[in-house]
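Q: Predict the bound structure with guanosine-5'-triphosphate.
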Amino acid sequence: MHREAGEFRSIATLMLQRIIALALVCLIGMGGLQLWLERQQQEKLFFQTMALMVETSSQAMAHAIWDIDRDVLSFQIRRLTELEAVGLVRVHIRSTGEILTSGRAGGTQDVPSYQTVIYAPHALQQPLGTIEVWADRTYYRNLLWESQKRVIPGYLIFTVLMCLMVAWVMRRDLGLPLRQIADFARNLRPETLNQPLEVRRPERARADEIDMVMQGFEHLQQALDRHIKDLDGMVKERTAELSALVDEVKRLSRLDALTGTFNRRAMEQRLPLEMERCVRYGRPFAVIFADIDHFKRINDQHGHAVGDAVLKAVASRLQACLRANLDWMVRFGGEEFVIFMPETDLSHAQAVAQRLAADMRATPWGCNGLSLWLTCSFGVAEYQSGDSMESLLERADHMLYRAKDLGRDRVCADATV
Ligand SMILES: Nc1nc2c(ncn2[C@@H]2O[C@H](COP(=O)(O)OP(=O)(O)OP(=O)(O)O)[C@@H](O)[C@H]2O)c(=O)[nH]1
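A: Predicted complex:
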C-alpha cells in the first residue's frame, strides 16, 4: 500500500519500539518470577528462624507449665513478643484449658505462623499444651520489600541498557544503511543508472541482506541500462525502417500502379519546378502528348488483360526511347502518356515524336501470345514565355487532338512558337 511521505517512520524505530515492548513484557515476566522465588526463599528462611526461636522458648515454657509457675511462663511469652520479628504469641495449656495471648495488634492474616506442641520436660511423650507464634506484619513486609528492592533495580537497569544498546546497533547496522539505500532509490533516474549504490556501514566478515539488496540494485541497474540501450537500438532500427517505408510510400504515391511511370500527382509536383528552371536558365522545354490509336478496339477484341499488357509494353518502349536522367514521362490517363523533355526545342521534340511514331508502327507487339499492330498519335508543344502548366499542356493536347482528327498515326506540333 502506498503511503504519503508524512506517514514515514523508520523501520529501525519501529523495530526498536517493538523490542522495547517485548523487553518490558520480559521484564515483567522475569522480574515477577524472580520476586516470587525471592519471596519463597525469604519465607522459608523466616520460617526456620521462627521455628528455632519457638523451639528454644518452648523448653523453658515446658518447665514453667510443669512447675505451674505462671510468672515464668508469662515472662517467657513476653520475651518472645519483645522480639522484632514476632507479632503475636498464643499458648494453650492443656491441663487447664487456659489460653495465654501476648503481642502487638496487627492481625494474624497473611503473615506466616509457626505452631508446635509443648512436651513435659522429662517425659517427652506427654504433651502439656501448644504454642503458636505469628510474625510481626510490619517486620515481615519490610523484610520482603528489602529483598525485592535488590531484584527490581537490577532488572530495570539491565532492560534500559539492553534497549539503549539495541537502539544504537539498529541505527548503525540497519537504520542508516536502509536510509542510504532508500535515498539512492528515490533519486534514481534513467540518466544516472550507471551511478553505483554506495552505502557507508561497518566492515563485515560476511555478506548480509543489505549486501544482497545492493547486489540486486546493481543487477537491476545493469539490466535496465541494457534494456534502455536495446530499446534505443530498436527505436533507431524501427525509425530507419519507418523512414524507408515512408520514402517507398512517397515514391509509390508518385507512380502509376499499372505502368510504373510517373502519375499526374508527380507531374503536378515536378512540372512547375522544371518550368521554373527552364525560365531561370533561358533553356528550351518541350512536351509530347502520346495516345494509342483505337485502343478501345484492343480492349473490346482481346479483353482488358491484353489492354493492360499493351499499356505496360507501350509505356516501357516509350521510356526506353527517352534520354535517361533527363526526359521523364507521365501516364496522363487511360491510354494517354505525356513526355517532358528539358533542354529540347520544338523541332527536336517533333523529331523525337516522329521517331517514336515510326518505332510504334514498325514492329508488331507481342502480348499474351498475340501479335498486335499498333500506332500512336503525338501532339508536341514547346514552353513559351508566360506559359502556365495548364496552358503548356493544353497546347500539346490540342496538337494531339489535331493528329487524331487528321487520321491518327502522326505527329502534330504547335507552330505558334
Ligand atoms: N485495359 C485497359 N483499358 C483502359 C485503361 N484505361 C483506359 N482504358 C480504355 O481505353 C479506351 C480508350 O478509348 P477511347 O477514349 O475511345 O480512345 P481510343 O479507342 O484509343 O480511340 P482514339 O484515341 O480516338 O484513337 C477505353 O475503352 C478505356 O476503357 C486501362 O488502364 N486498362
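A: The domain at 11-156 is CATH 3.30.450.220 (Beta-Lactamase).
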